[in-house]
Amino acid sequence: MKNIFLLVVIFLTACSHSAVKKDLSINELSIVMAYGTVKELNNIDPDIEKDLLIRLYQSPIFGESCFIETHGVCRNNYYISVSTFDEFPQSNVFKLKMVGEVTEIRWLQENKNDYVEIEFTINQYTKEALDNNSSLVNVQSKILVKLKPSSLVEIVEQ
User: Fold this and answer.
1) Which of 90, 119, 123, 130 could be a cystine partner for 106, CB 3.0 to 4.6 Å?
2) Does residue 133 lie in a domain region?
3) Backbone phi, then psi, for 109, in 5-degree steps?
């Protein structure tokens, strides 16, 4: 019986893998899980057939001081998870370089397997921060994200 238990433990250990990139710390992950929000990107542009499951996680950046005499979120960090729909799915989580507030997301049509391009429009600061502090200057950017289960490339378009 002990041998069977040991064999099961070894088997389960060999079958498991970490979906989180090694550069994503436990502290970052706990902030995302505790304070973050998730958006299902597969629901965007339903006319485009999708062969990857993509989720965008938004978590606040704490400790910034753009709010005047109050506490609020000036900018957010973003993480994206990607997974295939295969029998043995590949999955990964990436931290995006972009920070601020995403205002628009557009899924671009691509005819490649397990590959997607998504365009994000992002403001440098959240709407609440801009409303609270008139000295902040908003900069809006477009970011093109090229995503596969094994890699992510971010390109600033503007």
Assistant:
1) 119
2) yes
3) -70, 125
